[in-house]
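SEVERITY: medium
COMPONENT: batch folding queue
REPORTER: lab tech (J.R.)

DESCRIPTION
The queue accepted two submissions in a row. Attaching both inputs and their returned structure tokens so the on-call engineer can compare them side by side.

ATTACHMENT 1
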Amino acid sequence: MTTLTSQERVQRMLERRDQDRIPRGESWWGETLERWQKEGFDGDGAQFLELLGSDFHGLNWCWPQVFPGREEVISTDAETRVTRDGQGKLVRYWRNKSGTPEHLGFDCDTREKWETKYKPALLDSGLQVDPEAIKRTYRLGRERQRWCHLTGVESFEETRSLMGDEITLIAMADDPAWVVDVSRTFTNVMLRNLDAAMATGIQPDGLWIYGDMAFKNGTMCSPQMYKELIWPDHKRFADWAHAHGMKFIYHTDGDVRGVLDLYVAAGFDCFQPIEAKANMDIRQLCPQYGDKLAMFGNIDVMIMGTNDRDRIEHEIKTKFAAGMATKGYAYHSDHSVPPTVSWATYQFILECLEKYGRY
């Protein structure tokens, strides 16, 4: 088969048409790259993606903050720092390493505060993207013939960031109109930013939206509650993308098997990263959903982290076979690659991508 450009390859994957090889993407923790550099990789993240043969070209990152640019340092110690961020919440971060931050408190803890303080501030926050910078990055992506995508966050992630999991989930049951208002308002602000990017005349290939809505054993709320409160705004993102001639990719961690039919109904084209340690397995999912929903990821980082080549090769070989049978599959780890994965191991993974990932 003729070698395709990255743009052609990803587009054909999303449309389940013939490809030369599966598209590739990847993410990693900062400490992972540092380890690889110590072990012989001579390059940075951009050079790693070139080595991988990544087909994706992100144009931006958009997560509108209620108070953009605000970060007040509250306290520090030898290992951590506590800040009040642009969402008004208190967060503790590691000072010298990556990791999930600890949420210590949320100021937007009542509907009254949302309506009188946070909602007006969010609506008045202005553009939080740089349209001209996006336009320049788009030109670079087109020169490289990559699949260019706008990137940002969806409303459930925003609601949890603003109010916290506990307040959000209780409000979904006790005051669903509050959650709907937060979701609709944030989605309006996100689309306002995306519209500003499109007004520069660019024509991206896709919209890739991030938001975690599940734990290891299931979604944070029932599928019916998701459908009533959050799903309409997820559908708005997909509809917006399709109205602009783009495909729609949705990122979520966790076990979302209970809502995959809703993803299909909303018009999602693809979902990622398909977290293996949350019981997601494309060897079971592709036969059921592969004709309706492209799959992107699912290569287990816990298996990568064993550095056991036999286990890693089996993981890639069997999952590639399942994904490629649908023609709607792209490579990615099921989460960011951790620093337990050696550079020698990832070089072996690259060999497996070539061995098993060509049609």
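ATTACHMENT 2
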Amino acid sequence: MINSDVIRFIIVGHVDHGKSTLIGRLLYETNSLPEDKIEEIKKTSKELGRDTEFAYLLDHLEEERTQGITIDTTQVFFKTQQRGYVIIDAPGHVEFVKNMITGASQAEAGVLIVDVKEGLKEQTRRHSFFLSLLGIKQIIVVLNKMDLVDYSKERFEEVKKELESFFDSLGLIPLSYIPISAYRGDNISKKSDKLNWFEGPAFLESLDALKCRESKEKEPLILPIQDVYKIQDKRIAVGKIEAGRLRVADLVRILPSGLKTKILSIEKFKERPQEAVAGESIGFTLKNDVFIERGSVVCSPFNGPSFTDNFSAIIFWFSKDEFSKEKRLQIRCATQKTTCKVERIRERIDSSTLNVIEEDAEVLKNLEVARVDIKTKKPLALKNFSEVEELGRFVLTEEGNICAGGIITSV
């Protein structure tokens, strides 16, 4: 019997360590591919003079096929007897880090893939740090290409020990380390005789052991407003409930005004529900004529988010242009936006080694991480990322271009 729960997980790792091949193999092993797609893969592989390459399922862009790298974030669905999965395939190349972070922000779990022959590389370390930064606690590490080291237990243990040391520095403990060969299909859906020394689970077994994200229904209400529509005589506000529940006749507070009012109705297409819960995207109307617009946040009248113009955060600067504290940036958090200034760069950090480059710095360079204090032009409804992700995660933009992503550590 298939569980109705669906888990979203991201696969990250250094370029060419086998992410796309692993995903293609997963789809093949779970009978998620139509016969004509398998034939297409075989034909494409033959035309390029290679053995059957499952990676071509994901690297569908011509540029990716010729360069051999994944450029954008791809989402793919498959299911086991246990439940359904959405795979977020993130780019491994250093030039596409921004896309990788965007994908990771949607994931409940992470899979780090490492070429067991090459071991830890710069992007392996950087992507591990991103998983930590984004609060992903459920992590499975797969050591791929075991066929290239003759399925050596010694090499597996050597790389595993190095990875354990690095994860320890991040304060993370992966759920499992699994030796595989995505190309040959070893240890993917079932245990491989070539890896009979390994006593742990096959990769699909480890996925089925993941836990779904806990519901936030019992937490105080948080509902960022996406838009407001005028339909006949109704002004219907719409948005996704990030935490809590909303009921008809509930008393709520509207930020930034701080005014309190009651919910008159909950609107769904061809439905008139009396309540909605965390995770649902809904429309609703208010009893009083209270002003509400995109960027407003509807919350509990007594236990809402902080409403402030300053906070501390960790940011990742991925613009190629150097950042200096004189720059004015725009901040976007949920549907809220305003201008802001980084008042203090407490630490500049090398994202691949996690070493502190400089304290009380004046500049940030491409692919550096920083602990910063930020002041916004107008107050925003904010929470620590560890409490409510949607109000604790933000991006910084300059002239419309995203130049940094961050999480709030203290408001």
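NOTES FROM REPORTER
Residues 60-73, 92-97 have pLDDT under 50 and may be disordered.
No errors were logged for either attachment.
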